[in-house]
Specification:
- A 7-stranded mixed beta sheet has the order 3-2-1-4-5-7-6, with helices on both faces.
- It has 2 domains: 7-100 and 210-283, Rossmann fold, CATH 3.40.50.150; 111-208, Orthogonal Bundle (DNA polymerase, domain 1).
- By secondary structure, it is an alpha/beta fold.
- Helix 3 links the parallel strand 2 and strand 3.
- It starts with 6 loop residues before the first helix and ends with a strand.
- It is globular.
- It has 13 helices and 7 strands.
- It is 47% helix and 14% strand.
Length: 287
């Protein structure tokens, strides 16, 4: 079941008001989008963007069932294209934008794309089939030094060089096709399942250009929000949070979260996967 992370906190920091327009740049299964639509009627709209066409179809269906369909603009696309998407759909007067940078439960549990080392799935790891490169291609064809770079910089894995060396040695004999095969290679080197989590995070980030995309989109989103509007960003690992924290500091905006907001004990009981979430929010100066 999909559980939106830090939902009440996001709604509070975005300061949802009737008839105001908002953008959800990572719609997922619609948790934040639908919650905003429940508060910004009767004329307020939400532009929901997601790279996965399955998610966009699901959000449209849910919004229609809840009577919000005419106020939802759902777009299958990459949030780094937010400027052209806003232009194409003439979505103006934006009071707030939210990013939930986490991996959805559906991607982990049901997508079959190899996002988790606990399953036996093909090493895809793309959020969208239009992405091009897969984790399988990186693992089986990229130079050893490039794999070392990914594991060190995107997974902060101390044994990156040894893991990459074993990957290259094994793929010469047989291609590494499945998530559990890669996990076993990592475990043989490190004797740690946590290392597998870091390796899979690193590959996912590389496949989907996650860090570069976050760095690119934050100033674009900030420019789209009207003066006095709000930006809320939920990150899930230190690499993302560093980018968000630096942007907030450099923006000279009114930062609403002096320290990042983390899930409550109650939320963690309901949704243990939210444990790494950190929410930061700001208000754009009125100039």
């Amino acid at each position: 079941m999909h559980v939106p992370v830090l939902k009440e906190e996001v709604l509070r920091f975005l300061d949802i008001k009737p008839n105001k327009n908002f953008i959800d740049c990572t719609a997922g299964e619609g948790g934040h989008t639908l919650a905003i639509l429940g508060l910004n009627g009767p004329k307020g709209r939400v532009l929901a963007i997601d790279r996965d066409v399955r998610n966009i179809s699901l959000v449209k269906e849910k919004a229609k069932e809840m009577g919000f369909g005419n106020r939802l603009v759902a777009v299958n696309g990459n949030y780094i294209d937010i400027e052209s998407i806003v232009e194409r759909y003439n979505f103006r007067d934006v009071s707030g934008i939210v990013f939930d940078l986490g991996l959805s439960s559906w991607h982990i549990d049901e997508s079959g794309r190899g996002f988790t080392f606990t399953k036996n799935e093909f090493l895809d790891m793309r959020y969208s089939a239009n992405n091009g490169i897969t984790a399988w291609e990186i693992v089986n064809y990229w130079p050893e030094e490039d794999i070392v770079f990914i594991l060190l910089n995107y997974g902060e894995e101390n044994m990156a060089r040894k893991i990459a060396k074993d990957i290259v040695a094994i793929r010469k004999v047989k291609k590494i096709d499945k998530s559990n095969e890669l996990s076993e290679i990592v475990y043989r080197v490190t004797k740690s399942r946590k290392a597998s989590a870091r390796v899979f995070q690193a590959l996912r980030i590389a496949v989907n250009d996650e860090l570069e995309n976050v760095s690119t989109v934050l100033p674009l989103a900030f420019n789209i929000i009207k003066p006095g509007g709000r930006l809320a960003v939920i990150s899930f690992h230190s690499l993302e949070d560093r980018i968000v924290k630096k942007f907030f500091k450099d923006s000279k905006a009114n930062i609403l979260t002096k320290k990042p907001i983390i899930p409550s004990v109650e939320e963690l009981k309901i949704n243990p996967r939210s444990r790494s979430a950190k929410l930061r929010a700001l208000i754009k100066p009125k100039q």
